[in-house]
């Protein structure tokens, strides 16, 4: 029989709730770390997932407001805007030897986590999925795929491989990738132009990519130049071509957050990109303008 692991999930929302439910369903002990009311709900109802990939199912989870015991891994699945407050739920001393696995978009959070927790246990991951928290304990998983790339240059490879195997056995496609910088910047290079353009103009991808083609091209070129300066391989032509393969109605999650009046991960995406550009002396005027216009609009 497969080994049962104990996995904590900080912020059981769209991504975290889906992974928590999948891990529980495949026989692992899952402890969700959440705000008081959400923890209460999860203890009573478990997590229900409605998924194009996995069907509909409900899985029981434990829930607490704080980590109080050592675990094998702790997935960090809050948004950037909540990261500082949420991390107070994970006292470094409680973690033991656990892997700390942030699945946030962005490139700056791994350093913050390494300053707080054991640097050789922080394993940043990239997740490709579309999953939404409709209510506490109710997750709608819209994409027919759930892909996780696990990285962490200083983390023992066997620990990453073991977690990838656990996540894969639970239903995702998870793998260990060698280069953390490449993994995080590959996601950033795709996400930043798409998120900034669609949110700035309030248009779905189809209209944004045709009506604002020159800006999209410039954003892709700027993001690629910054990525390259940070040491990541880049493929701007490939990125541009990829946007054209998405259905015209596609919206970015930043745009959906803006429409719902939620705080945006603007600083973690656009802000971080501009800080990296400045550090490396790479010009990024179109990115800077869009970020400024979004901030001026109150985001
Ligand atoms: N969703 C996707 O499809 C997707 C895909 C790729 C990458 N990502 C990235 O993954 C990250 C998480 O996004 P998400 O969409 O999963 O976010 P989300 O659905 O908003 O979930 C975040 C969860 O964090 C919880 N939370 C907020 N403040 C907290 C605190 N102080 N303590 C404990 N929990 C707290 C919320 O709890 P409540 O339920 O109590 O409000 C919520 O359940 C983001 O960086 C996003 O860019 C998301």
Automatic annotation (TrEMBL):
A Pfam family hit: ApbA_C
UniProt KW keywords: NADP, Oxidoreductase, Pantothenate biosynthesis
Annotated Gene Ontology cellular component terms: cytoplasm
InterPro entries tied to this protein: 6-PGluconate_DH-like_C_sf, 6PGD_dom2, ApbA, KPA_reductase, KPR-Related, KPR_N, NAD(P)-bd_dom_sf
Top-rank EC class of the record's enzyme: oxidoreductase
Domain Ketopantoate reductase N-terminal: 7-142
Residue ranges of every copy of the Ketopantoate reductase C-terminal domain listed in the record: 182-295
Catalyses which reaction(s): (R)-pantoate + NADP(+) = 2-dehydropantoate + NADPH + H(+)
Similarity remark: Belongs to the ketopantoate reductase family.
UniProt name for this protein: 2-dehydropantoate 2-reductase
Native organism: Streptomyces lucensis JCM 4490
């Amino acid at each position: 029989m497969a080994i049962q692991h104990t996995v904590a999930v900080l912020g059981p929302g769209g991504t975290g709730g889906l992974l928590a439910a999948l891990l529980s369903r495949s026989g692992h002990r899952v402890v969700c770390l959440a705000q008081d009311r959400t923890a209460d709900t999860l203890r009573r109802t478990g997590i229900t997932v409605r998924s194009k990939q996995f069907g509909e199912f409900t899985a029981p989870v434990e829930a607490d407001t704080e980590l109080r015991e050592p675990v094998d891994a702790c997935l960090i699945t809050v948004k950037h805007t909540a990261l500082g407050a949420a991390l107070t739920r994970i006292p470094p001393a409680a973690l033991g030897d656990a892997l700390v696995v942030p699945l946030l978009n962005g490139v700056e959070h791994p350093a913050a986590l390494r300053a707080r927790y054991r640097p050789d246990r922080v394993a940043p991951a990239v997740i490709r999925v579309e999953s939404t928290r409709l209510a506490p304990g109710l997750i709608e998983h819209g994409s027919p795929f759930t892909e996780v790339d696990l990285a962490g240059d200083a983390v023992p490879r066997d620990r990453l491989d073991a977690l990838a195997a656990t996540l894969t056995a639970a239903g995702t496609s998870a793998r260990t990738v060698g280069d953390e910088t490449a993994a995080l910047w590959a996601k950033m290079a795709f996400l930043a132009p798409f998120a900034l353009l669609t949110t700035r103009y309030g248009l779905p991808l189809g209209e944004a990519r045709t009506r604002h083609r020159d800006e999209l091209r410039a954003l892709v070129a700027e993001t690629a130049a910054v990525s390259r300066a940070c040491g990541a391989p880049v493929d701007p032509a490939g990125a541009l071509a990829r946007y054209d393969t998405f259905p015209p109605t596609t919206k970015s999650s930043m745009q959906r957050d803006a429409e719902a009046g939620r705080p945006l991960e603007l600083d973690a995406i656009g802000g971080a990109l501009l800080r990296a550009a400045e550090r490396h002396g790479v010009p990024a005027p179109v990115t800077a303008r869009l970020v400024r216009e979004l901030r001026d609009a109150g985001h």
